[in-house]
Every structure is written in C-alpha cells, then in structure tokens.
Amino acid sequence: MDGLSGAAAYSPAPAPVASMEYANSRSRDAAPVSRKLIETGRLSLETPHVSEVAKNAEGIVKKHGGYVENKNEDEDEVGLSVRVPAGKLKTSMEELETLGKVSYSKIRTKDVTDQYIDMEAKIRNLRVLRERLRKVYEKATKVEEMLEIEKELARVQTELDSIEGRMRAMQKNIAYSELDISIERKSVPGPLGAVAKGTGWVFKKLWVLN
C-alpha cells in the first residue's frame, strides 16, 4: 500500500475509527474495577485566637500527610484551602474540630468511576490513532496528503492533551481530598463581659426614660 492509499484510509474519517475502538475498549473494560471517589470537605470554626488556631490547623494537616494549597488571612478571619490524602479526610476533620467551636462541618463524596474509565479509553484510543497517523505520514509522498495528515495529527494531539490534563486533575482530586477551613474570630464573653453588657443595657434604658 502506497502513502496516498494509506492517508485515505485514516485522514478522511478518523472519528469513526476512534469511535469503533472506543466501543471495543468499553467492552474489554466491563470487568469490575475499584471505585474512583472524590471527597471534599468544608469546616468552619469560631475562636478568640484565630492566628493560633490557624497555625495548629496547618500542623494537623501536615501530620496527616497533607499540605496547604492556599491561605487568606486578615485580622478577624483565616481561610485555609488544604489537601489531605484520600481516606484521611474524616480523621483530619475530627481532629481539627477540637480547635474551636464548630459552626459548620460537611463531607461530600462523588463517584467518578465512569468518567475515569471513559477518559482512560479515550486516551488509549487517541494514542493508537496518533501512532497510526505518524506511520502513514512517514510513507506519504505527496505534499497534499502530508498536509492533510499533519492537520489530523494536530487535531488528535490537541484532543489528547486536553483529556490527559483533565485526567491528571481528576487523579489529584482522587488521591488528595480538598478541604476548605474557615477560622473566624468569635469572642466568648466571660462573667465580667456579661455584667458589663447588663450594666450598659440599664444605663441605656435610664437615658431613654429621662
């Protein structure tokens, strides 16, 4: 088979080839697989000691094998966006909850097994198609067919790069759970604070009456 006939076999209709291979891959991948789960958490704490609690929270995250992705801090509130290894989110949150008064705590779990399998199959098929196009290109002898194959190769590579990028992001989310922590300053009035508040209320009432 010469270069022209090879190009004609792949360039005009690459999508059906990929679709057929994709369908076959789905059949082969029908065997049971481990579930791919993404866990995310949100935790809000109230405390009079914002900076100290934030520092302790970072220590707990690191102790469980996690790390801080982002930190926003001002005088009355600290926001932490952290990652902890999959399977350690609940344990980490339970320990973090001891640092202050919990105003909100939630864990969400999303099953992404089907999306993961789909992306694996698409990546595998696109790589096969890319290699076939490269072999056809090596045998091409005419400028027109070479340009056509180059165009198709560029399209396949762009699609492959996009899916591989999404796959890496998903793998990160599966391996490390995302946890958003909000630490807000909240003064806890003691006995003297309550007395002062009561005295102020009395003076205010007397002023209104006068």
From TrEMBL:
Q: Which residues form a coiled coil?
A: 119-173
**Organism this protein belongs to:** Rubritalea squalenifaciens DSM 18772
Q: Which domain of life is it from?
A: Bacteria
Q: Which UniProt keywords are listed? A: Coiled coil
**UniProt cross-references to Pfam families, sorted A to Z:** DUF4349 (PF14257)
Residue intervals of the DUF4349 domain: 35-194
What is this protein identified as?
DUF4349 domain-containing protein
> Does Coiled coil count among this protein's keywords?
yes
List the taxonomic lineage: Bacteria, Pseudomonadati, Verrucomicrobiota, Verrucomicrobiia, Verrucomicrobiales
Q: Which InterPro entries match?
A: DUF4349
